[in-house]
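Project channel, design review

CF: Before we commit to the Buchnera aphidicola constructs, I'd like one complete example in the thread so the newer folks can see what an input/output pair looks like. Taking 1-deoxy-D-xylulose-5-phosphate synthase.
RD: sounds good, go ahead.
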Amino acid sequence: MNLNFKKYPILHFAARSVEKLRLLPLDQLPRLCDELRKYLLNIVSISQGHLASGLGVVEITVALHYLYHTPFDNLIWDTGHQSYPHKILTGRIHRMNSIRKKNGLHAFPCREESEYDTFNVGHSSTSISAGLGMSIAALKEGKNRKTICVIGDGAMTAGLAFEAMNHVGITQSNLLVILNDNKMSISKNVGALHSHLEYLRNVLKNRTNKDKMDCLNEKNIKNNFFSFCSIFSCLGFKYLGPFDGHDIFSLIDVLKQIQNKTGAYLLHLVTKKGKGYLPAELDPIKWHAMPSFKVSIKKIVSYSEVFGSWLCEIAKYDKKLIAITPAMSEGSGLVKFSRLFPNQYFDVAIAEQHAVAFAAGLSISGYNTVVSIYSTFLQRAYDQLIHDIALQKLPVLFAVDRSGIVGNDGQTHQGAFDLAYLRCIPGIVIMTPSDENECRQMLYTGYMYKKGPSVVRYPKGNGIGVLLKAMKTIPLGKSIIKRLGKKIAILNFGSLLNNAFFASHNLNTTLVDMRFVKPLDKEMILTLSAHHKCLITIEEGVISGGAGSAVNEFVMKKKLFLPVLNIGLPDIFIPQGTQKEIRHDYKLDKEGIYNQICDWIN
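CF: and here is what came back for 1-deoxy-D-xylulose-5-phosphate synthase:
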């Protein structure tokens, strides 16, 4: 996309290279920030992507690239939602309209994409750990390389960030952590750290910038004096702030004073998520990420909405129902529940490990606990799921959203691995609904199951428009024959059932909605094996270790000696693209499944 010189004259010059940016006189930087903000708004409005976070860090981005010697100096953006201005200023401005699209720019910083992206991100709270490693490596090698981590106050709530800060406090590292305090993550921030930051903002708001820089005084550094006793100074950081994160001149001044200092510093910057675009400032949750859209004639309910409505329905008569989410209330469909049943709802912030262990404590105490979590983020709580839930056979229900192909957020967010990493856990029940009504029934089945943990994994997006029926439990481990055919039996696990129907109809096969990955319907497999010449499994997850692997293991154990074709995702990290594009590329759309079967049987 060509950049309009007349509309963006300063940005047109600065975006050629970071070296060009550093040639700008200081008094041109406010205008650059203004043009960068307008360009970002324009490019996201005609394309798609994360908007509000980027609008909030424009001045921070400009100041860092203006002063520091990137890419020699390491600049790490935590999570990466806020990295669009960084991408624009580091040689990628003409490809910004491709962001989050197939074969386009990555949604988050990616080392394969640019030397300015020093660390791949996507999941939150990793920056300080990685930055500390890079900082210590630079010291060991005798390189005068600076390391800067930009982390939001939402990401700072995660245990991983505190583990890293705890380690920083006992090292001789040269590390600058910039706390981008906008009072938000994707959802509104919660917790004691949020309250502490608010306290710092209020207590220190009347202090001058000079007073806030006291700890940079050589005498004070020598005497280990800190200008204010914050949680960060107690962890070994020299705390500076809070400063206005949108005052470019103040930022440049502060960063210049820090730039050549040694030790660990935490610079607290207060910003406005969505800065410069009033709708995004007023509603940063809505404007966090903006998709392209089409006018819909008929509203089809999403799986997340099915979950949220089901939860509200249950809570009306179960006062011991507790719903837990790690900072994803909007995406998981929990906003309505949180308003109607605030005493039965916990947003624990970006703390997946804590969310699951917290659920264990509630479950042991007699509460019917539901953990709503994205597939990709459940990975972060795997030990708690095994050690704290499954080992104790606690009846916690996991509503695993965004399973399978997620789409535009790419490799870091695809829900490809859940079946493989869950299936090996003893005593767990794993359900894979093929439509929104089946999802509703499975949620109820998991809620009623009291012998151990249960999982309902469902995809991102809308259902197929089926009628939602009254709740009833599904017999554990029982599948349903959807179509009778000859010679070939297709065993479908989950949301690709409609695509499997196309192949089943055209090849006259038997089609079974397996519904359960664990316990597996072994009786059905034995029956199908006795009356068919081959089996085909279909799932929207990795083939290695997934539902198809479970069928393979059973077939071999029983010495059934019939061929099995596993259809699913290959042994790679799935790139970005729309769900439709990815299903087409990996032959999981209806034509792709049909062709895979034809190629195999022929």
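RD: helpful, thanks. The chain has 26 helices and 19 strands.
CF: The chain has three domains: 9-288, 303-457, 480-601.
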